[in-house]
Amino acid sequence: MTIQRTGHRYRDAETNATLDVWFPLSNERRNRSCIAAKAGLVVGDFVDVTINSLDDAPASAEDAYLRLHLLSERSVKPNEINLDGVFGLLTNVAWTSAGPVLPANVEALREAAAADHFHVNVTSIDKFPRMTDYVVPSGVRIGDADRVRLGAHLASGTTVMHEGFVNFNAGTLGNCMLEGRVTPGVIVGKDSDVGAGSSIMGTLSGGGKQVNSIGENSLLGANAGIGISLGDECIVEAGLYVTAGTKVMLPDGQVVSARQLSGKDGLLFRRNSQSGKVEVIPTDASRWGGLNESLHSND
Predict the structure, then answer these.
(1) pLDDT digits (tens, 9 = 90+) for 56-68
(2) Which of 110, 139, 180, 285 is deepest in the core (most CB within 10 A)?
(3) Quick one: which of 32, 34, 41 has its CA closest to 12?
(4) CB 12 within 8 Å of CB 41
């Protein structure tokens, strides 16, 4: 499948390095303006980008930006698109309220903005911008836009609370409450809750090539974590981190590594408060009651 889109690009005026590209959904040539461009620190132009196959690795920063847009536009799902080498293609940028610039140019930007009585805020210094400056998907709520990177895939009905974080090439497939960290490669199924302070080990956080996920109607408790996948109707109790090598006691007394239970449905992982052993028992998601429907009316 060939994808062709037209975007507006900002380049550093001195080095010609690509800082960002915005691809409007209309696929029309829509201009942007910012104080950084007015000051001559960046140059804006239009660029046509063609991707012949999403299975091929991105070939340029412009190519990479289009792939990140496709994820956040929900045109493709996480792990359905090749992002190999994306870090090496993107430039470290100071993302400011006056436009993107190289970090070394922030002082010059402040000086230029002062002439217009404009105060410059630097929201981050990173290779990835926040998603909402480029794509605003329908039917979602985001408490803190700084915590959702471009390339996140948020299905309609998703709520990302202020402490939630969604990285690129990660996200949700339906109504979800995200109060913890969803790392690259991770997909959360519909009607699931990622509790406050919790973490899902992804391909960039020690998981290597192992892609973990959470199924439907499952709960990852507050301050809990997983280095395995959860199937449907699973629960990990608050404060428990289950890695692939965690020794888990089954109801019959057998002890196995948690990796052997990865992706299985209907399991409750808990730590015995007396023995300290990690146990797993059959369960169903009615034990935690499911998502609060009134919190997921995001229209």
Answers:
(1) 999 999 999 999 9
(2) 180
(3) 41
(4) yes
| Of 202, 280, 278, 273, nearest in space to 234 by CA | 280
CB atoms within 10 A of CB 151: 29
Q: Report the C-alpha gap between 276 and 58 in whole angstroms.
A: 47
pTM (predicted TM-score): 0.93
Q: Which amino acid is at 248?
A: V
Which residues, 6+ apart, have CB-to-CB distance to 112 below 8 Å? 35, 36, 38, 39, 41, 98
Please give the backbone phi and psi of residue 259, each rounded to the nearest 5 degrees, phi first.
Answer: -60, -25
- 62, 179, 216, 237: the catalytic one is 179
Integer Cα distance of 238 and 243 in angstroms: 15
pLDDT tens per residue across span 171-221: 999 999 999 999 999 999 999 999 999 999 876 555 456 789 999 999 999
Element (H, E) at 225: strand 225-226
* DSSP states along 110-122: HHHHHTTT----E
Q: Is 237 a catalytic residue?
A: no
Whose CA is closest to 259, among 270, 269, 248, 244? 244
Cα 79 to Cα 147, 152, 184, 210: the distances in Å are: 20, 11, 9, 12
23-55 CB burial, b ≥16 within 10 A, e <16: bbeeeeeeeeebbbbebebbebeebebebeebe
**Residue 219 host element (H or E):** strand 219-220
pLDDT tens-digit readout, 16-26 = 999 999 999 99
Among 103, 121, 104, which residue's Cα sits nearest to residue 34? Answer: 121
